[in-house]
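Re: that chain you flagged

S.,

Sorry for the slow reply, it's been a week of failed gels. I finally had a moment to sit down with the sequence you sent. For the record, here it is as I used it:
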Amino acid sequence: MLGPVILAASRSDKMRRLVSAAPVTKQVVNRFIPGETVGEIVPIVEEAVASGLELTMDVVGEDITTPEQAAAARDAYLELIAQLKELGHGTKAEMSVKLSMFGQALENGHELALANVRPVVEAAAAIGTTVTLDAEDHTTLDSMFAIHEELRKDFPQTGCVIQSYLFRTEDDARRLAAAGSRVRLVKGAYKEPASVAFQEKADIDKAYVRVLRILMDGDGYPMVGSHDPRMVAIAQELAHRAGRKLDDYEFQMLYGIRSDEHHRLAAEGHRMRVYTAYGTDWYGYFMRRLAEKPANLLFFARSMLTKG
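Prediction finished late last night. Pasting the structure tokens below so you have them in one place:
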């Protein structure tokens, strides 16, 4: 399977230099990451909102090695929120944050990440939106969930992400599926050992359905993060069985992947949120998009062969 190989490459400095230097890379990266600055992302936000879509915004970047870089990441999100306020789109775009960007892996990282993310959550609430804490590799999750619980004391709308490929996730879903919670379910996009995660696609898919059922039957707000047509259809059926209305849950898909499906679901009355990343430190995010779906890798390879 190519996925694990690509995920390993996402941590390789040599591969980072090779991919970054390829003449066609920027053209292909733009499929998934439509801009590097707030100014470049504004037309994307306005176009999405005008077409009935909502967004979750991610400032890409994970390899934080100093507290100063973590503070800069915080400030980048604050700049984004200020721009959304100016556009009047605060209620249509939430923020997705990776706590590694806020210093989670540094010395006293838990406290540092909490201190850096809190102002972002406060600023988001002030313009009528919220923040979702992205899930990263399994070693970071206890800290992420603890920060999520702490933030929800003052900002109960703060969301979090769970990953179906981890063995722990069904228990996490039962704990999180409570009134007022917002939980995004994804399959998972990090290289995890067999001791903590399912390795086969069929097992991951089965786990996704089990967890999705827990969320739909619970009292919280499920956010279905999948491009898989089968999972979309299963989510609709489970929501119907649970008596959920169309605004009692939402679908989330990545910018640049199955855009026609984004608009189809929105036209049917579903809440459809597009995960839109931007920024200069795109490498790790880009490589995980390639690992998630073979078609993405084929698209990149074909482009390098024909354009490079």
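What I noticed first: The radius of gyration is 18 Å.

Talk soon,
D.
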